[in-house]
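Re: the multi-chain job from yesterday

Posting the exact lines I submitted so nobody has to dig through the queue logs.
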Amino acid sequence: MPQSDMAKPSPFVIRRREWGDFYAVFHIYDFCSPRNMSVCGGKGVYGLLSCIERCSFLPCEPDRVLVRVQKLTPEKADQLIWVRARIHTSRAKGKQCFLVLRQQQFNVQALVAVGERASKQMVKFAANINKESIVDVEAMVRKVEQKIESCTQQDVELHIERIFVISQAEPRLPLQLEDCVRPDGEGDEDGRATVNQDTRLDNRVIDLRTTTSQAIFRLQSGVCQLFRDTLTNKGFVEIQTPKIISAASEGGANVFTVSYFKTSAYLAQSPQLYKQMCICADFDKVFCVGPVFRAEDSNTHRHLTEFVGLDIELAFNYHYHEVIESITDTMVQIFKGLRDKCQTEIQTVGKQYPSEPFKFLEPTLRLEYTEGVAMLREAGVDMGDEEDLSTPNEKLLGRLVKEKYDTDFYVLDKYPLAVRPFYTMPDPNDKKYSNSYDMFMRGEEILSGAQRIHDAQLLTERAIHHNIDLEKIKSYIDSFRYGAPPHGGGGIGLERVCMLYLGLHNVRQVSMFPRDPKRLTP
Amino acid sequence: MPMYQVKPVFGDDIKTDLPTCMYKLPNIHAQRSASGCSEHALQNGTEVDPAFRDLEVRQDKIMRRLYELKAAVDGLAKTVTTPDADLDQTVTSLSQSPTATSFRGTADLDSLLGKDLGALRDIVINANPARPPLTLLVLHAMLCQRYRVLSSVHVHSSVSGVPAQLLACLGPRHADSYVRQRFQLGFTLIWKDVSKLQMKFSIQNMCPIEGEANVARFLFRLVAPYPSDPALATLVDSWVDTAFFQLAEGSAKERSAVLRALNGALGRDPWLAGPELSLADIACYCCVLQTGPAASCPANVQRWLKACENLGHFGPANPLLQ
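And the result, structure tokens for all chains:
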């Protein structure tokens, strides 16, 4: 470097030891002297900006508007616009540098070419910006004759006039985004890598930037919103239940203990008890969305220790099928909403994880447990009348139902009483069975629900029958002593519903920062 | 006031000669008395009363039978154009003999559909809402008369919306429908985006049956057996195929040819195949009315259409024909 070029470094440059840094120093001094910066809104053309500088542009160019990449269409052709996006890829070729700028699910091609607006050093600077850095770009939008297949904005390209780095990324990324998005089979054929799930989860911040992850979590947000909207329209009230409780609600084994001042308390396994107390408190129809903690040491594809539970409880008038109809109608409205409004997201996920589209019937198909057992026996499975369904049997039954009725979602009603919890109401017509039901998506259980016993006397009897210590559930039984309406309900796991709707195979892909027996961070 | 008195015109002592060859009746205005000098045997003692009573009873019975006959004839007057009395809905208790197609019970279902595994035998039909299967709705009504059928209608996710009358086409929901086990047969109609109508029954033992004609044949066998005479059975089959392929899906020329053929066949016999209503008549009725209004058909066909309507089976199809 000639000595004269190494002029006084501008005070506006971040101190970094990179090749490009020296060029930046030289050129910021050259074109953006402090005199120019303060007076005419920074006539600098490119460079790295410190945190202070990001704010310093605003008073100088108060009417600068950042355009979303999604809006870059041929309508904006020949306009000079500013865009803030990440560098997805950059490739230098002689006197030109091609960049792909990415903003969430959308990306656009951008070009820095040596000419009257850009110098060779600028092109080199652009080529050397680290991937994933956030840049501000002033560019002219130009129409292209041939569609750019590899970008989402296929009809336009940006010709960059000014480029500034707002936030620089480290040069070596722990994983590459193209590898994250590559479908599993494809990588092995071409010798290119796909990323292991553990690596992905360890570097979740980068993994969540991929188009697939963005689509998955937008869909999950849609599920939550549709759940709330559908139930609110039906007259339900949203409640918040406590998660630190004094006694285990479902069973003693799978519960987390926390130290609570001088004693200990537990993290709630489900909001069951409090939902029912709300019904006894005359709220009639309630739902709640909140975390559920299960200390199950299961390392499977569908178990998490902490997940989001969407729980419903309602009082009914004459028959518990009113509860089933209400819940299945809510699920069908959610499915319809996703089918009609989230097709882009479903297609995006399908590119990396192809699967069959989700099918359902309206009104929802309701089969009885005896029918399910008969179908399984016809298929060669040997099982007793009152035996519970094992996971492989559930999957087989799901396939049989799909074959006959072509639906991925159905309800299995009237489970045997012996396999249900003590608070399940027995069937008045047949004491071997109960008024309880399970709902399945793609052959996997997503909801377990029932009509609850609302009579304190009967509840005590059933608890004694199940050898449960009455002292531990005294407050639970007490809540039914002062007039409780007949009621029922059920709860679904948000992550499991999303996973099964999209046909994914691991619930961790659908949980932003999943918790399982082996993972506690990030 | 003294009134003008008229002298009697004739005297009351005139003697008249009554003829002796006439039958003398007692004076019906005179009081009835046990010692009355009536010549009639009825008034003589109690030993004649039972006979009188018997006569009265016989007379009452005859009058009652006459009234019943009159009511029956009035009913028959409505179906006077319907030659077949077997499946007539309006004949009263006078026709006591049950016909061959009356209630058969579960024993027959076991022989037709295979052993009962303790669960509802559910027939699943996937139909396109753009082409509702009228024949199957008629057969569903006939099935409901013979068995306890749990009917349900669903809309598949491949179809976005279905008109209300298609959702209600199987009739109102049964009161017992919350317990599926109480029914002998299930009939599940799913409105789906399929190119051909499809029926699924037993996944392990049967492949899906496609085409409205074939599903109609399956369902009809649950209602009544096919004619045992092979020639007649073939005739029924050929009319069913004609109805579905040429009448429903054919060009205008084919349709008019079929109507002419129908006209010719119905000129000879009251029904299309044999002396009774059969699947051929059901299929042709639905397809004829789907192609055009009744008034545009030839005369024999119109008469036969009226006869079909009088039988009352085609009620479920009518709202969908408008």
